[in-house]
DNA sequence: TGTAAACTCTATACTTGGTATAGAGTCAAG
DNA sequence: CTTGACTCTATACCAAGTATAGAGTTTACA
């Protein structure tokens, strides 16, 4: 199978497939006489696995670790589980951050309706307030 | 004020300040005879404003737009509000995505405890299942 | 006054996960 | 035999910085 077919079957772009090869997520395939990459079904499986991991927002490094561990069936899957645990925690943390951000933005946005002049814009005033607050605290310091 | 002091006062790194200058978020300051950047208090204010926007996860481009709009006090603040609205929506969407991801990961993780061999790892089996499902659907197609 | 530490300058490379391009070679159909 | 579709490598680009080298400047202290 040539790279274009593999791209069609996986839904990944040709460049992405070559990129994964450079990152050693996918081992370099055989080449035809004319130097075209020639893939087996194993490569397809591997790429789908990688795609699934990426859909879970795992980094290339995390995927690399999982693939490496997966390669020897007798080893413990502890590191795979640790990777997933850390990943879950990272996402939990990110959600918390974004929730807080969202609240701030929504309350900021509530301070302005649409047809004001810049001078009167509630949103900009909110942003400036924080700057002013900072300056005041700095004045205390100096 | 030299760049180091400005960095201290804003909590930004020197490189970041120079980076914002290159990106035209911060106008190029006066230079001393020895070519050192020399900043006014306005630059401090501007940087704090930018920092605040970044803390709200706004992109440089978004901040650029807001700063530009802010520069003429008689214009309408509609575009500022539109920027914030879109940003709020982006974040809402990202939170939704991450929530779904989180659920998938947690349920996947529940399929394995820590001291299994790779062969038996529930997490890896979950990941493979999705690959298998894909292959089956492909088999129908061809 | 000398010198060493601390500061600043520019330019460049690196990060992540790809995407996009140029310029060359290859293959299949008409 | 040529046109179009495909592939190859190498390189540059994106965001939002961070890190470095190598040079020049200023400040503190003896």
Automatic annotation (TrEMBL), chains A, B:
The gene is cadR. This is Cd(II)/Pb(II)-responsive transcriptional regulator. InterPro entries: CadR-PbrR, DNA-bd_dom_put_sf, MerR-type_HTH_dom, MerR_fam. It comes from Glaciecola petra. The keyword DNA-binding applies. Gene3D superfamilies: 1.10.1660.10. Pfam families: MerR_1 (PF13411). Keywords: DNA-binding. CDD domains: HTH_CadR-PbrR. Residues 1-69 form the HTH merR-type domain.
């Amino acid at each position: 199978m040539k790279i274009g077919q593999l791209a069609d079957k996986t839904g990944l772009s040709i460049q992405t497939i070559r990129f994964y090869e450079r990152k050693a997520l996918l081992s370099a395939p055989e080449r035809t006489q004319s130097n075209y990459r020639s893939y087996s079904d194993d490569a397809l499986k591997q790429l789908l696995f990688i795609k699934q991991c990426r859909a879970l927002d795992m980094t290339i490094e995390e995927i690399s670790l999982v693939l490496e561990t997966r390669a020897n069936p007798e080893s413990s899957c502890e590191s795979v589980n640790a990777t997933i645990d850390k990943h879950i925690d990272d996402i939990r943390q990110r959600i918390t951050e974004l929730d807080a951000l969202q609240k701030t933005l929504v309350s900021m946005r509530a301070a302005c309706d649409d047809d004001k002049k810049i001078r009167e814009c509630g949103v900009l005033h909110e942003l400036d307030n924080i700057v002013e607050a900072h300056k005041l605290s700095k004045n205390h310091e100096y």
